[in-house]
Amino acid sequence: MAPKPKEKAKASAATPAISIEDLFTTLNRHIQRSEYEQAVKVSDQILAAAPGDEDAIRCKVVALVKADCIEEALVAIKECNKKASLDLSFFKAYCLYRQNKLEEALESLKGQEGSTESMLLESQILYRLGKMGASVDIYQKLQKSTIDSLEINLVAGLVSAGRASEVQGTLDSLRVKATSSFELAYNTACSLIEREKYKDAEQLLLSARRIGQETLMEENLADDDVEIELAPIAVQIAYVQQILGNTQEAVASFTDLVKRNLADESSVAVAVNNLIALKGPKDVSDGLRKLDKLIEKSDGPEKFQLARGLDLKLSQKQREAIYTNRVLLLLHSNKMDQARELVAALPGMFPGSLMPVLLQAAVHVRENKAAKAEEILGQYADKFPDRSKVILLARAQVAAAAGHPQIAADSLAKIPDIQHKPATVATIVSLKERAGDTDGADAVFDSAIRWWSNAMTEDSKLNTIMQEAAAFKLRHGRKEEAARLYEQLVKSHGSIEALVGLIQTAADGDIDKAEAYEKQLKPLPGLKAIDVDSLEKTSGAKHAEKGPNAGATETYEAKSKDKAKKKRKRKPKYPKGFDPANPGPPPDPERWLPKRERSSYRPKRKDKRAAQIRGSQGAVAKETASSSDTKSNQPANPKGASQNAGTVKASSKSSRKKSRK
């Protein structure tokens, strides 16, 4: 048996391990080069050699976040919390913010409010949650700190919070010009749009685009990247053109942005939505196809969500506009099932918004269920009276269109901001008159008069309301109340219309009062030469008696005669080619009558062959023979002649056929 080979001797010296200092040097190099995946691997090597190293843990978490590995970063934070006492609450909150778990992110930030980084993150979370006021408050607390581009986020927060009027004052306090960067110029232009200064906004947006092109070209960005960065400015310029009435230019700009299909998906989504809003119901199928690419169904708690992460990139107002336009297009295309499904999901997606309720009512109206729409809107108005103005206006419109004037009038009467304005009062009165509620309409006028009498406003509408109320009362037979209102108007405002109305109403019951006020009327010019007494004695078209007005009537008749003489006769128009000197024979006087009614009409002769008798050969021969014998001695007439002719022709034919045999 052969001896076993000897085992190789083990190496006496082990492979030298890489020092932690060298690993950190390598880690720093990868981070400087933005090689985050390699940085994570080196961090794991450091943690294997030195578990619990705080710098390595932080580097690993930050590298995972930079590499967009948010879930792995949360796992690393969770493992670190088990093994070490390192506080990574800020990083956890940021990862939850990136995952749009905003409430959990705010909870994780508790206890971190003092640091600048935590305050910035909290303001961003609040901004994403739609709590713009709280977000702006945090930014204003950070004004004294040296943070790059703080003014950009601050202006954006002010615009989103509905405080666009404070933007210019904020820039002045920060001593920053709106054109210091293209981002700040863009946000400032948005504030001008909110203040309806569209011309100024358009000029500032054009400046922002020019500054952005210069800045990004200096950074050596490619043309495509520059176009992507400036896409929001292009969309906003097109929107301003739309508002200013330049519809064709706006449609061309939006269409160009959609066709280019830029990598800035949020700007493309806004352009698609605005383009659909511009076109309206003209091309419903194309609009639905475009929106189908933006909206998709999900298996989560929310049945619908925007594609490609647009829920995180668009504001709540923008997302709501996209869903609203989709519902309207579905209604226009009569896809009621899809519209009902989407509308049912909107209240959970946009809690506190009025639009889902209005869309629910629109669906019911489309289905000819106006009463159901009125019920939904009325319940919401009763539940949230502080934000029921738009809801009540919609309910009034639906009820008026459905033929329910009383419900429409009651809805308008519940809006305290406008219920006493002249237009609203006139509308409510008209609706109540249509419903047959005259007393209710009269009460509306009385309430409006009391309100305007006590109102301390410079632009008082009391005169207008009282004038219309008096006319209404007079029209419905309430002459005493009308006279009282007219008298108040005459005494307070000296209105001529009120004076005329007062005389009309007082003439029926108090003639002395009517005559007293009649003296206040100014004489009409041109009536001094007319004797009213003699004018009353005239009857019909007879000449008036001689008096001061006789000369006036004579001159009037003379003028009318002169006018009659001045009329010149026009030459008659003849047909083309007609010579009036040689007119030719006169036209037929019966030319307008139908032909069968003219004296020259002769009916067409009947076909003689219509009475031919056809049948078998032998039968025809016998019948013709017998008929010729019996009728040979009868006198000829048209009917007999036609019969004989028919029989002769038949007999000759039969004889020929027999001879052929």
Automatic annotation (TrEMBL):
Q: Which UniProt keywords apply?
A: Cytoplasm, Endoplasmic reticulum, Ribonucleoprotein, Signal recognition particle
- Record bears the keyword Membrane: no
- Entry's localization field: Cytoplasm; Endoplasmic reticulum
Q: Where is this region: Disordered?
A: 538-661
Q: What Pfam families does its record include?
A: SRP72 (PF08492), SRP_TPR_like (PF17004)
Q: Where is the composition biased (Basic residues)?
A: 562-574
Boundaries of each Signal recognition particle SRP72 subunit RNA-binding domain copy? 549-603
Record's compositionally biased regions (Polar residues): 624-646
Could you identify this protein by its name?
Signal recognition particle subunit SRP72
State the organism of origin: Datura stramonium (Jimsonweed)
